Amino acid sequence: MNDEARVLAPARVIERREVARDTVVMRYELNLRAQVRPGQFAMVHPGDDDVYVLPRPLSILDYRDGVLDLLIKVAGRGSAQLAAMQPGASVRIFAPLGKPFDLEEFRGRPAILVAGGVGVVPLHMLSRELRATGSSPLPIFGARAPQDLPLEILGEEPAGPWQLFVEQQAGEVQRGGPREGPREGLREGLVTVGLVEALDRHPDAIVATCGPTPMMHAVARICRERAVPLRVCLEEQMGCGAGVCRACVVDDVDGGTRHTVCREGPVFDVEKICFLPEDRPKVATAQGCAS
Ligand SMILES: Cc1cc2nc3c(=O)[nH]c(=O)nc-3n(C[C@H](O)[C@H](O)[C@H](O)COP(=O)(O)OP(=O)(O)OC[C@H]3O[C@@H](n4cnc5c(N)ncnc54)[C@H](O)[C@@H]3O)c2cc1C
Ligand code: FES
User: Fold this and answer.
1) For residue range 47-96, what is the model confidence (pLDDT) as tens digits?
2) Is ligand 2 within 6 A of the CB of residue 247?
3) Which DSSP helix (H) or strand (E) runs through 260?
4) Which of 113, 143, 147, 206 is the most exposed place for a label (fewest CB within 10 A)?
5) Are 280 and 251 within 8 A, CB to CB?
6) Which residues are bridge partners to 231 per DSSP?
7) Does 160 sit in the ligand 2 pocket, CB within 6 Å?
8) Strand, helix or coil at 28?
9) Residue 75's CB: how many other CB atoms inside 10 A?
10) Is pLDDT above 50 for 11?
11) Residue 283: partners with Cβ closer than 8 Å, 6 or more residues away
12) Closest ligand to 19 CA?
């Protein structure tokens, strides 16, 4: 992505939809200079409030004809402020950022996409683009509970159908409300169950993953054991989003080099970086392997 393609501009909220527990899809009016590719993200500044010095990184769910969709799960103050905004409010957005998935690597082989939580966002766009090129990816999504499933997105025909896993089938008791029962098509358990089943059927697959770190570590161990290529989409904490502050670095597996996730990622070949806690650079860096 060349730097001229990036835009820092005000964007107006034009729609806000609740899609799961503490999770909204915000639609903004914004003219970007480049097409958005799967894995790319935006740095979003909640407005003119000086308390939030740093913008928040959010993967891009969709961008078409001057309309940008972001999925926001409330994690703290910044995301809560962004998710609470109503149509008419304004934010500042820096986008599109980061190196996307390379679709060429997925061509001509089965693609298994393993997402957890907000990691569904980049893999949703990847699934849609792979299907548009005639591939049939196998997308698998895991959430903690049924209330955390953004079913509206997972059910979208151009990217689906997703295999769904929840850690707890019966939802938590809502205060004053009924206990949710099991939902059709949902399996109780971890996404790694779906991954192993898919790899048993397609040992020649390539895997892409995005989600909570423990989930991605489990996916990486399974892929390494089976010598299956894996692309990870990292969601490190970020500062500038522009490759300047180095708040987001990961070690190269050869040692000596540290890659910025915001600029050289967020998508990496897992075997090229120190990703698992047990990974160590071949040549020790001053800091050792960040884990
Ligand atoms: C490239 C990238 C893409 C992302 N895409 C999305 C997305 O599509 N949708 C979405 O809802 N979130 C996404 N995130 C995570 C999101 O940026 C953080 O949840 C958000 O910045 C937290 O800010 P806050 O002020 O709400 O919370 P804070 O008060 O800053 O933190 C609240 C809690 O969230 C944790 N946290 C903060 N940043 C991250 C992070 N990057 N990853 C994991 N935990 C974090 C903190 O450790 C703390 O426990 C993405 C992050 C990155 C780097
Ligand atoms: S966030 Fe500043 S270098 Fe990546």
Assistant:
1) 755 555 679 999 999 999 999 999 999 999 899 999 999 999 999 999 99
2) yes
3) strand 258-260
4) 147
5) no
6) 208, 269
7) no
8) strand
9) 13
10) yes
11) 254, 255, 256
12) 1
- Distance separating alpha carbons of residues 242 and 227, to the nearest angstrom: 33
Residue type, 76: G
Tokens 């103050």, residue located: 77
Cα of 140 from ligand 1 centre, angstroms: 22
pLDDT over 70, % of the chain: 86
Provide Rg for the chain, Cα atoms: 19
Binding pocket residue ranges, ligand 1, CB within 6 Å: 41, 56-59, 71-73, 75-79, 118, 121, 235-238, 266
**Which residue lies with its CA nearest to atom 5 of ligand 1?**
58
pLDDT tens for 90-127 read 999 999 999 999 999 999 999 999 999 999 999 999 99
User: How far is residue 92's CA from residue 81's CA, in Å, rounded to a whole number?
Assistant: 13
Look up residue 85 and give its DSSP letter. -
Q: What percent of the residues of the chain are helix, what percent strand, and what percent coil, each to the nearest 5?
A: 20, 30, 45
Nearest Cα to Cα of residue 250 among 208, 207, 291, 209: 291
Q: Which ranges of 133-186 would DSSP assign to H, the alpha helix?
A: 151-154
Q: Quick one: tokens of 201? A: 């059927």
Dig out the tokens for 18 from the structure.
């609740």
Joined together, the tokens standing for residue 64 give 């078409």
Which residue's CA is the closest to the ligand 1 atom numbered 53? 235
Q: Is-contact 156 183, C-beta < 8 A? A: no
Binning pLDDT at 50, 70 and 90, where does residue 154 land? confident
Strands (E) across 30-88 are located at 41-45, 56-64, 67-73
Locate the ligand 2 atom nearest the alpha carbon of residue 246 and give its number.
3
Complete domains list, the chain, with CATH: 3-97 (2.40.30.10), 103-235 (3.40.50.80)
